[in-house]
Amino acid sequence: MTRDKNLEIARYQKEIADYIGLGPDSLVFNFDEAGPVTKLFVITLNPRHNQSFLFHQTSGSDKVDALRAMLDYVKTYKERTGSYTIQWSARGEGSLQTSYFRAKNIIEALDKLFFDRDPNSITVFSVTLNPIT
Nearest-CA neighbor of 110 among 77, 71, 84? Predict the structure, then answer.
């Protein structure tokens, strides 16, 4: 019996969303299939401040392989990353926003904040490594 790749992709996406703890309206799975490697960017959507941020990026030989790599990551990312709080403001807006990221270090947390946007569109006021709980 041949497998239906679309069903397999949907199953992996649901399992990843369940591990992260976000619903389908809060996650976007973007694939870049240019070249021999398929890259997967999982983006979180925050309706409170109407912004999107990179959750994590993986790659594989195709969509299913990239999703498998993402699932492997989400199963253990809390043990391998620190929790960061970033306070920031969008250019032209006066309100201070607070966002939370899991990352290996401060640079990776900031990269997730600035992913796919003009670096001049956001002013960062503070980055804090949260205590281990």
Answer: 84
- Which tokens hold the place of 55? 């959750």
Under DSSP, the state recorded for 58 is E
One-letter amino acid identity for 132?
Answer: I
Tell me, what DSSP letter sits at residue 36?
S
Architecture of domain 82-133: Roll (3.10)
Instruction: Extract the residue ranges of the chain whose pLDDT is less than 50.
Output: 1
Domain ranges of the chain: 1-80, 82-133
In this prediction the pTM is: 0.88
- Contact between 70 and 40 under an 8 Å Cβ cutoff? The reply is yes
Could you count the other beta carbons within 10 Å of the beta carbon of residue 77? 17
Domain spanning 1-80: which CATH class is it, in words? Answer: alpha beta
> Bridge-partner residues for 44, per DSSP?
27, 53
